[in-house]
Amino acid sequence: MEITKGKIQKAKKVVIYGPEGIGKSTFAAQFPGAVFIDTEGSTNDMDVARLPRPTSWNMLLDEINYIKTHPAECKTLIIDTIDWAESLCVEHICAIHDKKGIEDFGYGNGYVYAKEEFGRFLNKLSDLIEIGINVVLTAHAQLRKFEQPDELGAYDRWELKLGKKTQSQTSPLVKEWADMLLFANYKTFSIAVGKDGKKHKGQGGKRTMYTQHHPCWDAKNRYGLPEECEFDYSVIADIIGGTNTVAPEPVKEGKQQIEIQKPAKDNDFMNIPKNIDEKVDFDTGEKIEETKKEPKVEDSVFHIADYIPKALRDLMYPNLVSEEELMEAVYQRGFFPRGTPFQNLPQEFVEGCLIGAWPQVLDVIKTIRSSYEVPFDK
């Protein structure tokens, strides 16, 4: 064992929440090398790098795994927003257990399942921190009546707008996980009007960021930020810029072909061509650079029928899983007789088994593929 002293420079875990339209996505976009996983489509009009919008919980996890195995393409991963991501989590839990809602489990078991799955999700994000990638979670805020057990009366306070039924389980996990929990709001001043000064009206609207706990909101930071400051990235730029962890080389894993949609900006590290092999002209001795363009799924002849739900197609495309391979896995596991067309599969089976348990389905398909491989005799 070795005892170490001093600060350890690592990537940062940041949660930004506030009312709609205050600029959470714009604020997050200023982090270095930002790549969005846009769960709600709020960045459509922003010039940012993004992964495809996840249509299922498993697709969201696949995109996190893609960033983990391709760290050179991302310095900051932004999930915008975490409350919409939680909805995917709850849908996933209900689908794999064949339930219509989180309360159908009984005895509060559904909330426990959601908490455990969300905890594993945060652990995956922590893996990115270990390889030097910042993680930013944005969330909406909501007002909730709060009553302290040792005080009389109640008051309103701002909290993360997570699921109404699951908030008490997942919200504490998110707040404990973060290094910085930043609350952004419009600062309004109450001005007395009238002769007697008894009437008041609101005036102002300055965007303000709160970084420390207050009876009326949750916030925290570990870097000595002022309790109240302007909602501007420059306030935390030095803290984020202090992360100098060098990311490891990408790890090859399967046939992932998720493409990051990049912004059209000059001098942006996202626009640097990848996979460039250096060659030398033997006549002049100069280096020749050739850019290898990785094949895109949409540019190839590979196609999946439109009658397959989009959430399932989004999981099939990155691994080039055909409808025939998918149905072969269904037949071999004995779920339905051989020859049953995909159109005859019940919706609850598609959502709960094929989409909900996609990692296990993919393992079966990979086993089937390996059985087709013919050994090469020298």
UniProtKB/TrEMBL annotation:
Record InterPro entries: P-loop_NTPase
SUPFAM superfamilies: P-loop containing nucleoside triphosphate hydrolases
Pfam families (UniProt xref): AAA_24
Domain of life: Bacteria
Name this protein carries in UniProt: ATP-binding protein
Species assigned in the record: Dorea formicigenerans
